[in-house]
């Protein structure tokens, strides 16, 4: 039969358009939340930028809170997936751990660089709304738990000492990473600083070395050699 079209194809087309519209609303809401804060962003601002009626928004989302919570939950899942790559299946040397950490941090910094608005929401955009702030805090807590699982796994494999405080180490590590990401993406930075020009790979290499070897950025043996040389 001609002229009627394929009803399945029309349904698929409509579904695709609906999904695209939903994704567009999510992206616009995220941008506005990051730039102006959750509290200062209204649904009317979101639909105005999207060029749709408020009814379209409510077709996809129950409220402003609902769209914000979905944005945060989606970002949380992506971050957990990235950090989960560091869960080791077998033992290795210190150099193996440094290399693995560098790869993990590269993925995490790439995610942060590609999702700048989400990171800004995570660090500064929740405002005073208790529900949204709680969701943001849970995302940051999940990062800490994911790193703690990686550390505990390394202890199981005898790659790290059995007596370390894995919760404290995870907290210190996440604080380091959050600080690096925040300064890298948002500042403040010294005028002559080249931090903003560093790639995710360069930043990951520096952070991984600091994670394992501290300010010297060297192994213990090399550090001893430096100490001996300075005492001559």
UniProtKB/TrEMBL annotation:
PANTHER family in the cross-refs: ACREF/ENVCD OPERON REPRESSOR-RELATED (PTHR43479), ACREF_ENVCD OPERON REPRESSOR-RELATED (PTHR43479:SF11)
Protein keywords: DNA-binding, Repressor, Transcription, Transcription regulation
Record GO terms (molecular function): DNA binding
Domain HTH tetR-type as annotated: residue spans: 19-79
SUPFAM superfamilies in the cross-refs: Homeodomain-like (SSF46689), Tetracyclin repressor-like, C-terminal domain (SSF48498)
Compositional bias segments (type: Basic and acidic residues): 9-20
Record region (Disordered): 1-20
Protein name: TetR/AcrR family transcriptional regulator
DNA-binding region extent: 42-61
């Amino acid at each position: 039969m001609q002229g009627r079209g394929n009803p399945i194809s029309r349904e698929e087309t409509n579904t695709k358009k609906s999904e695209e519209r939903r994704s567009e609303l999510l992206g616009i809401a995220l941008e506005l939340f990051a730039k102006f804060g959750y509290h200062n962003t209204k649904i009317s601002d979101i639909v105005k930028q999207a060029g749709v009626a408020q009814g379209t928004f409510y077709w996809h989302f129950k409220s402003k809170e609902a769209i914000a919570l979905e944005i945060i939950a989606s970002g949380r899942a992506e971050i957990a997936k990235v950090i989960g790559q560091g869960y080791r299946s077998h033992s290795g040397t210190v150099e193996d751990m440094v290399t693995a950490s560098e790869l993990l941090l590269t993925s995490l910094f790439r995610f942060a660089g590609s999702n700048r608005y989400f990171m800004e929401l995570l660090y500064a955009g929740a405002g005073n709304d208790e529900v949204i702030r709680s969701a943001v805090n849970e995302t940051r807590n999940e990062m800490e738990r994911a790193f703690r699982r990686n550390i505990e796994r390394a202890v199981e494999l005898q790659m790290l000492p059995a007596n370390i405080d894995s919760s404290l180490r995870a907290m210190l590590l996440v604080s380091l990473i959050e600080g690096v990401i925040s300064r890298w993406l948002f500042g403040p930075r010294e005028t002559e600083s080249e931090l903003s020009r560093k790639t995710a790979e360069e930043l990951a290499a520096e952070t991984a070395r600091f994670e394992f070897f501290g300010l010297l950025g060297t192994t213990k043996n090399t550090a001893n050699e430096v100490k001996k040389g300075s005492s001559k």
